[in-house]
Design brief:
Elements (H helix, E strand, L loop, with lengths): L2 H22 L11 E4 L4 E6 L5 E6 L16 H15 L2 H11 L13 H14 L8 H13 L1 H24 L9 H6 L19 H6 L14 H19 L2 H10 L1 H10 L6 H4 L5 H4 L1 H13 L18 E5 L4 E2 H8 L3 H7 L7 E2 L8 E5 H9 L1 H14 L14 E4 L6 H8 L3 H8 L11 E4 L7 H8 L12 E3 L6 H6 L6 H8 L11 E3 L3
Antiparallel strand pairs: 1-2, 2-3, 4-7, 5-6, 8-9, 10-11
Helix pairs in contact: 5-14, 6-9, 9-10, 10-11
């Protein structure tokens, strides 16, 4: 084989071999691998296959619910109704009015109450007398009051026992500081039915029913914003100081309590008229009518509370105890409804904890030390966000035409249509009323409002209209028929006139003649007997 033929043959063989090698290499097969999916409780994990065989774990994050939906969470209806009834009870004045009336109109007729035999009562009163500094001796009058309360006021007493869980610890702390018997805490029940905003027909205010002048004397200030007679802590300290002072004068706790009610002057007059007796029960006929029923009401209340278990009383636990609250010193003006809105604390709870703020506004005044009392769980939230809260409050207050509520004539009824952005606190602030009042007037069980909803509101009486009304008021005619009267002469005063008629106090004369000031005109006729 010549060289040319060999070369040709070798080239053909080589070309064939190369062509065969390329065809023999398999093309990569398209492998379709299903995506593996694994799930756990919170997220879905997806395993994704790549061409190079590596696997990557991906996490599919579920979308979170819109946070605004949290605002629409529903409460348990029955439980919410129970809470609402409790809050309404805290602010209802019905109980105070009832107690005030029963004390001033006590009757001492025998009461049929077989559940408490006289012998059992005598034994218990003897036990109570041994452990307290009060003269608790059995007498038919006291038995009548105790049995009357047990028979006719059982429900009221149970409600008072529930309220006492909140107030009594702070009472006892102050009373102990001034060496006053702890049983004096029951005096606040007789005075105010534990209503910090209770106001008597003669103007006595607060848990301990301080008159304006006496309150000022013991450091309880009253302004357009604040009435410290309604401050539970400050008024209790003032009452403790006053009671300690009365005891130093009389040296007897029964007489000190009588003097707390009617004033030391009436007690000393009763001692004189009785011929020098210093026992309450002996001078009682010579005391003003209300004071005559005062100590029996106090002792009856003490007996029922001390022997509540024996009489089967069942008290409800309040929403919180005094020790479950704390105070914050305010650094800028803020309103209770702003605090309620930001901290999600019901406005009724804030009003209950801060009763001394007349307009639900906590002012910031140089030299004054005003505090906000909150449930403990809300205190941390306030302190943590203090700057933002004050900034919000300031911005919101600056939007208003006036920081104080606008006052309207209380005689007129307003029909208010709920607008977008309205809430009960805002509406209450506008008309100078309480949220609880709006709810009561309209039968509302929650704070929820609907746009277009109609609300009935009775606005507060305008401050400016007071003077106008006084000048245009028609003088009332007092019926003197069948009653003892006295004609005012030169030099007379209410006090000097009261001295001339046994058992008659200055307040009696004011009440019987429908007068509010101490000014008298020569020649005017006054009723001096009821």
């Amino acid at each position: 084989m010549n060289l040319k033929l060999k070369t040709l043959t070798f080239g053909l063989l080589l070309s064939y071999m190369f062509s065969f090698g390329q065809d023999s290499i398999p093309k990569p097969a398209e492998v379709k691998q299903e995506i593996e999916t694994t799930k756990n409780e919170n997220n879905t994990h997806v395993v994704d296959s790549l061409i190079d065989g590596k696997k990557v774990l991906k996490t599919e994050i579920k979308a979170e619910l819109d946070s605004t939906a949290i605002r629409n969470l529903e409460d348990h209806q029955l439980a919410a109704e129970i809470d609402q009834k409790w809050l309404e009870e805290l602010y209802s004045n019905n109980l105070f009015d009832t107690i005030y009336k029963t004390v001033s109109e006590l009757k001492y007729e025998p009461v049929d109450y077989p559940e408490l035999p006289t012998d059992t009562l005598k034994a218990r009163l003897k036990e109570l007398n041994a452990r307290t500094p009060f003269n608790i001796e059995y007498n038919p009058s006291l038995e009548s009051v105790i049995k009357s309360y047990l028979k006719n006021r059982r429900q009221s007493m149970e409600r008072l026992m529930s309220l006492s869980d909140y107030y009594f610890p702070l009472f006892e702390e102050s009373l102990d500081n001034y060496d006053i018997p702890l049983e004096v805490k029951y005096l606040a029940i007789v005075e105010s039915a534990l209503k910090p905003r209770a106001k008597s027909r003669v103007g006595a205010t607060g848990l301990w029913q301080f008159m304006f002048g006496t309150g000022k004397e013991y450091g309880l200030n009253v302004s357009s914003y604040v009435d410290e007679r309604s401050d539970p802590v400050k008024s209790t300290v003032a009452a403790s100081k006053y009671l300690a002072r009365l005891y130093r004068i009389f040296g007897d706790w029964d007489l000190a309590l009588a003097a707390y009610n009617s004033g030391p002057g009436n007690v000393s007059k009763a001692i004189r008229r009785s011929g020098g007796y210093e026992n309450y029960w002996n001078i009682r006929p010579y005391l003003p009518r209300e004071t005559a029923g005062y100590l029996p009401a106090f002792l009856a209340t003490m007996y029922i509370f001390e022997f509540a278990e024996e009489h089967g009383f069942k008290k409800q636990r309040p929403n919180f105890h005094y020790v479950e609250t704390d105070t914050i010193h305010v650094k800028k003006m803020i309103t209770l409804d702003q605090v309620s809105e930001l901290l999600k604390v019901p406005i009724e709870e804030l009003q209950f904890l801060n009763p001394s703020y007349k307009l639900d506004v906590i002012p910031f005044i140089k030299g004054e030390d005003y505090t906000l009392r909150l449930p403990r769980e809300a205190v941390g939230k306030f302190v943590t966000n203090e700057n933002q809260i004050y900034a919000y409050a300031e911005k919101e207050l600056n939007k208003r035409e006036k920081p104080l509520p606008q006052f309207f004539d209380s005689d007129s009824k307003v029909r208010y249509r709920v607008r977008s952005g309205d809430f009960l606190g805002k509406i209450a602030r506008k008309y100078g009323v309480r949220v609880s009042q709006i709810k009561q007037w309209n039968g509302l069980r929650s704070n929820n409002l609907k746009i277009g909803q109609r609300l009935t509101i009775y606005p507060r009486k305008p401050v400016a209209s007071t003077k106008v009304a006084s000048t245009s008021t028609v003088k009332k005619t007092i019926n003197t028929e069948g009653k003892s009267t006295y004609k005012v002469t030169k030099g007379d005063s209410l006090w000097s006139i009261s001295q001339k008629f046994p058992g008659v106090s200055v307040q009696n004369i004011k009440d019987w003649n429908d007068i509010s000031s101490n000014k008298l005109k020569i020649g005017m006729t006054l009723i001096v007997s009821n």
